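Hi V.,

You were right to ask for the full record rather than a summary. Here it is.
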Amino acid sequence: MDAKWYVVHTENKVAATLKQRIESEHLGEQILEILVPMQDKIEIKGGKKAEVKEKLFPGYILVKMVLNDVSWLAVRTTPGVTAFVGMGNKPTPISDGEVATIVKFTKEQAPMYKQVFAADDTVKIVDGPFAEFIGKVDSVDGEKGKIKVLVSIFGRETPVELDFLQVQKI
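Predicted structure:
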């Protein structure tokens, strides 16, 4: 039998429930693998940088399985699974190449900052020579964790480049 990858629309934490079900119902030969694509990100919380895992496709998991009535029913009736992705009621497989690209992307990317700021956000500078100033976000460099803020100094808007840690959204 030929196993293929399928995309399954889910609620949170379904992968663990599905893995338990595969084990308890001895479906390991039909449902071979479950993949929840994650990527490392850097998040700023309480003025500190923390590395977190972030889902690439929130609400979706990838399942490698031999599609038949038993395996389809086992996945479909697992609590938290809402549907297979496909045309009508028929799940549509994705190629091994697509899955390989997704896996490669999750492994090769350096940690990036989780985007917390956007252009035109109003922020308060909390550190550095411009501490306590209020400004408007001009641009965001998520890869470097830098933000350009327009600050009014002596009645003139001046761009100031800051680290994500130096500003707070208000």
